[in-house]
């Protein structure tokens, strides 16, 4: 997928590839320059976690899949970093769960919105929401409050990867089930989530899709049991401990 030359046996191959995708996203007008900083922050936590999916994150990913399958109207929120890193993987997750895709940007510009919509379409999406912007999230300033009223506005379950803390809190206050992917368990986004997934987005999205496919034929009772058994505080504590002590495996 990449036009750069990183030797595959380089010990940090995955990390360098990810970094290049973000750079590429900036060049294509998909990712903001702020997104580069967010990526750097994420890499730090991923390094401390051992660049792997820790067991508590795997449990969160399974719970997230169950929530998406139980949802009346699930929506996957897409920003510039996510679009650069996992566009095709998001389209697959949307298909596996019947979710809508909606572009949602912290620094909203029409050009970047359109570039991301086009990028997702190139990766197989048919409908991408976000351009109508006829709904508002209460409690946020004008530009950052914009959503589609028949998208995130109407959703009962929202996957918000790498969401800004403020908006994550505002969405939670609207009573939506929030599935947050964020490598920092102490960020306000992770703290306000119904399901905090402390894992790299490049691992988290394919993992959630795999769980969703495995659970596709499960009964609602079985899905509900998975949701009920998931303990968000325990997951956040386990992730923080893994970062501080290198434990949990
Ligand atoms: P807040 O407390 O408001 O949430 P923040 O430090 O999280 O503040 P953001 O701009 O939301 O500020 O930072 C982006 C977040 O996304 C960081 O927590 C970072 O760890 C996380 N992140 C960055 N890249 C990835 C990635 N590839 N996968 C998962 N999480 C990531
Ligand atoms: Mg955050």
UniProtKB/TrEMBL annotation:
One of its GO terms (biological process) is coenzyme A biosynthetic process. InterPro entries: PPS/PS, PPS/PS_sf. The keyword Ligase applies. One of its GO terms (molecular function) is acid-amino acid ligase activity. The keyword Nucleotide-binding applies. Keywords: ATP-binding, Coenzyme A biosynthesis, Ligase, Nucleotide-binding. It catalyses: (R)-4-phosphopantoate + beta-alanine + ATP = (R)-4'-phosphopantothenate + AMP + diphosphate + H(+). It is an enzyme of class 6 (ligase). ATP binds at residues 19, 41, 182-184, 188-189, 200-201. Its EC number is 6.3.2.36. Pfam families: PPS_PS (PF02006). Belongs to the archaeal phosphopantothenate synthetase family. PANTHER family: 4-PHOSPHOPANTOATE--BETA-ALANINE LIGASE. HAMAP family: PPS. Catalyzes the condensation of (R)-4-phosphopantoate and beta-alanine to 4'-phosphopantothenate in the CoA biosynthesis pathway. Homodimer. This is 4-phosphopantoate--beta-alanine ligase. It comes from Halogranum salarium B-1.
